[in-house]
Design brief:
Strand content: under 5%
Shape: elongated
Number of helices: 6
C-alpha cells in the first residue's frame, strides 16, 4: 500500500512539473498569452485547497481505499481531458477537477501514512513528502 501511495505522489508531482514547463507552448497553441495561462495553475491550487475538508468527510463515509480510488480516477480522467482540450476554458475546468482529485488522494495518503507507518518513521515520511513538494514550488 505504501508503494501505491508513493507512486501516486510521484505521478502528481510529475504532472504539475510537466504542466509548468508546458505552459508557454500551451499558451501558443491555444492562442492565448502566457499571463492568461496563470488561471490554469490557479484553478488547480484553489480547488485542491478548497476540497481537503470534503476529502476527509468522504474518507470517513466511503473509506480510505474508495476515496483514494476516486481521487486517482479524477486525476487520470481530468489529465487526459485536459491534454485533449481545445480551449483555455476547458483546460482550466479540467485542472479544477484535477485539483479535487489531488485533494482526495493527498489527504488519504497522509492518513494511510499515519496508519501504516510506525511512529518513528512517520515524521520522516511526512517531512520527506513536504520537502519534495516544496522543492518543486
Amino acid at each position: 500500500m505504501l508503494l501505491a501511495v508513493a507512486a501516486i505522489l510521484f505521478v502528481d508531482n510529475v504532472d504539475v512539473s510537466a504542466l509548468t514547463v508546458a505552459l508557454p507552448s500551451m499558451a501558443y497553441e491555444l492562442g492565448g498569452e502566457l499571463g492568461s495561462m496563470q488561471s490554469v495553475m490557479t484553478a488547480y491550487f484553489v480547488s485542491s485547497a478548497s476540497f481537503f475538508l470534503l476529502a476527509g468527510f468522504l474518507g470517513d463515509r466511503l473509506g480510505i481505499r474508495d476515496t483514494l480510488a476516486l481521487g486517482v480516477v479524477l486525476i487520470v480522467v481530468s489529465s487526459l481531458c485536459g491534454a485533449l482540450a481545445a480551449s483555455l476554458l476547458a483546460v482550466v475546468v479540467w485542472r479544477f477537477v484535477q485539483g479535487i482529485g489531488y485533494a482526495l488522494t493527498f489527504s488519504m495518503m497522509m492518513l494511510l501514512m499515519k496508519r501504516l507507518l510506525p511512529r518513528a518513521s512517520r515524521t520522516w515520511a511526512w517531512a520527506s513528502s513536504w520537502a519534495w513538494r516544496r522543492s518543486r514550488a
